[in-house]
Amino acid sequence: MNYIGSKYSLLDFLQDTIAEVTGYKDGDSYVFADLFAGTGIVGQTYKAKGCTVIANDIQYFSYVLNKHLIENIPELLFTSDQYAASGEQSAEVTLQQRTVKANTELLTRLNDLPLAEGFIYQNYCDGSGSGRNYFTDDNGKRCDAIRMELERLYRSGEISENIYYFYLASLINSIDKYANTASVYGAFLKHVKKSAQKQFTLELFPVIPGKIGKVFNEDINMLVRHIHGDVLYLDPPYNARQYSSNYHVLETIARYDDPELTGVTGLRKEDDQKSRFCSKRTVAEVFEDLIKNADFKYIFLSYNNEGLMSLDTIAEIMSKYGEYKYFTREYKRFKADKDTNRKIAGDSTTEYLHCLIR
Ligand SMILES: C[S@@+](CC[C@H](N)C(=O)[O-])C[C@H]1O[C@@H](n2cnc3c(N)ncnc32)[C@H](O)[C@@H]1O
Question: Is the C-beta atom of 243 inside 6 A of ligand 1?
């Protein structure tokens, strides 16, 4: 997923630095917490290395993605027959192929459902008269049909909680590729772009083998008081752009809670997920509270040189609680809109990984 602040392209930098500071090697058994988890890419990387991962995000759709990536393992999703038949022994078959093979029946059924005029079609497609153009009419109806059927299957006990999150995470990840936006859901495009015109097909998310972790959907400052572990990775928002406004459509697909909408873009009227890390007024205070209450031996913070907190503020806060240092890497800027709309020039920023050893 093309997510603001995704660490996908910085994974090598993160892994190399964390290994250098902690001395942990792949296969070592330790608790790794990814508490601003977003797409879950960092947590899933550490799960695959052998860690027990704790993940968290304030957005429900991110919780769903992580519920699957961190708490599901192949053995929980397939019957032993399916698992054996899925070619687990064969190195030539990728995990994704095995997953698809083992779940073909339900996947085919969901992709073949008759179209349904549910909340997404009614509110985010042009044909319903909503005035919004986030998905083509057919793709909106297809998304509704799958979302409603998944809920029915889960509530009637026909699918387990593990399968429910597997398919819901897959729905969120798949539908995002058909959104008629420049990249985030802060606005939709007037004309339907090429990738959004294609017929939406549900594809299954990979299943990450490893230890079964634990996922939360809480404000980090509340959660941090109740957990502990070895490595805490922090990747807060860097600027004032709230994730809840930029990903509200995915949030509604995940929750499917018939929210009251507002404005041209159909934002959720009740937004209880505004982050205090997105405000210059509150960020230093919540950041210090977080560091102070974090019961972890190693803490790593990703931030860049254009964030709301200055390098000096971060250094000052982190140094109070142990041995502090930082590492840097040049990074290609996330582009959600055209350069001409931007106040900041240049294609790259400097990414910092701040480290604290208690
Ligand atoms: C920079 S993104 C994380 C990206 C993630 N590391 C990835 O690679 O996909 C920041 C995340 O923090 C979450 N967030 C913001 N404020 C939060 C809070 N107070 N508690 C928990 N999560 C929060 C946002 O919803 C967003 O997903």
Answer: yes
